Amino acid sequence: MRESTIMKIHYGTAIAAVALVAVHVLMRLTQGFAESLEYESVLANYKFVPYAIMLELILVLLSIHGFNGLRVILLELKQGRIYEKAVSYGCLAAMIGLIAYGSRTIIVVNMGLV
Amino acid sequence: MAQVSSIAEEQASTPLSSSKSITLRISRYNPKHDDSSVFMEFTVPYQKWTTVLEAILDVKKHFDHSVAVRYSCRQATCGSCGMMINGKPKLACFTKISELNSDVITVEPMSNFPIIRDLAVKFERMFETHHKIKPYLIRDDTELESDAKEFLQSPKEVEQYIQFANCIKCGLCNSACPTMATDSSFVGPQALAQAYRYVADSRDKGKDSRLKMIDEPHGIWRCHFAGSCSQVCPKGVDPAMGIQLLRGYLLGFRS
């Protein structure tokens, strides 16, 4: 993938994440802070499908943006063909791993396994 | 020959008459023998108009002829005498001692360049990246062909790139760039500004190949817009702006 395409995705995910995190913060304001962190409250959020989809989107957007940012920092830190490939594929694998782990939480709750 | 030698003797014995003097600290380093650089101090007389390059040449003439320094035109045109003067990249021939407002002047080789000796640095990497962006007009036709006309431009078209054509390849922008300090593969502000100079030229048809060359992991996207390249340019070129304008092409805001 061309670097300009990656950077377009990087900027796009940042803008979209800011908008969705703002909605997420506003949703949290409907409850008290301590109350919103209670076990039942958290489960209820995951079971409310539109909100769960939004949380999933935030997870995906921030993972893409964050791990690409990490890749860029690491590429500037050191150079070399093998190192650069390891950094790029390592960040991609970590990003997929984090999205999978976060999604698993939402899926498990919605399947009634918790 | 005898006349030349008598002139040289006369110059060497010319008394230095000046009421003011500064301490010139020159970084000495020869990578072939030395582990690290050391500073040698010289007391040099100066006048209101004396430049740092003249002070260094004074040291070479009267104190230590082995100081290595690259220079040529002495009028900020050739771009040879770039160095760190009191910690900032400047042209030695374009920097007056009286303007520095300091009794001690420290000169070091430019940062982000390998040192040949003392104040002289290698330009190979900068010239290589400059060459890579194809710094010439790319066209299928030529104005040298018969029946062809000149490639005329309107003043507005010239304005798009003309300040970037003032680059003298002195390397001060690359020396000031924080990304150049950490990323040894970064294209650098000099080459990126020159890429913009040709991409923005209405006569040029090589935009796509140049954009492709800079659109890679160590290309244009590694610029953090610190802006130090534009601050140090002795010719008033604004590489930071050129880089942002080039990004506009890659992001689809400009065509």
What does this structure look like?
The complex is a heterodimer of chains A (114) and B (255). Chain A is mainly α and 114 residues long. Chain A has a single domain (3-110), classed as 3 helical TM bundles of succinate and fumarate reductases, CATH 1.20.1300. Helices cover 86% and strands 0% of the residues of chain A. Chain A has 5 helices and no strands. The longest helix of chain A has 30 residues, at 81-110. Chain A is elongated and about 50 Å long. The longest helix of chain B has 13 residues, at 239-251. In chain B, the strands form 2 sheets. In chain B, strands 2-1-5-3-4 form a 5-stranded mixed β-sheet. In chain B, strands 6-7 form a two-stranded antiparallel ribbon. Chain B has 2 domains: 2-121, Beta-grasp domain (Ubiquitin-like (UB roll)); 124-251, Fumarate Reductase Iron-sulfur Protein, Chain B, domain 2 (Orthogonal Bundle), CATH 1.10.1060. Chain B is α+β, with helices and mostly antiparallel strands. Chain B is built from 10 helices and 7 strands. In chain B, α7 (189-199) runs antiparallel to α8 (207-214) and α7 (189-199) crosses α10 (239-251). The radius of gyration of chain B is 22 Å and the shape is elongated. The termini of chain B are far apart. Helices cover 33% and strands 14% of the residues of chain B. In chain B, β6 and β7 (120-121) form a beta hairpin. Classes of the chains: A mainly alpha (114), B alpha+beta (255). The A-B interface holds A 2-4, 7-8, 72, 75-77, 79, 84 and B 179, 182-186, 215-219, 221-222, 250-251. Chain B: It comes from Marine Group I thaumarchaeote. Chain B: It holds the Pfam family Fer2_3. Chain B: GO terms for molecular function: 2 iron, 2 sulfur cluster binding; 3 iron, 4 sulfur cluster binding; 4 iron, 4 sulfur cluster binding; electron transfer activity; metal ion binding; succinate dehydrogenase (quinone) activity. Chain B: Keywords: 2Fe-2S, 3Fe-4S, 4Fe-4S, Iron, Iron-sulfur, Metal-binding, Oxidoreductase, Tricarboxylic acid cycle. Chain B: Pathway: Carbohydrate metabolism; tricarboxylic acid cycle. Chain A: InterPro entries: SQR/QFR_C/D, SuccDH_FuR_B_TM-su.
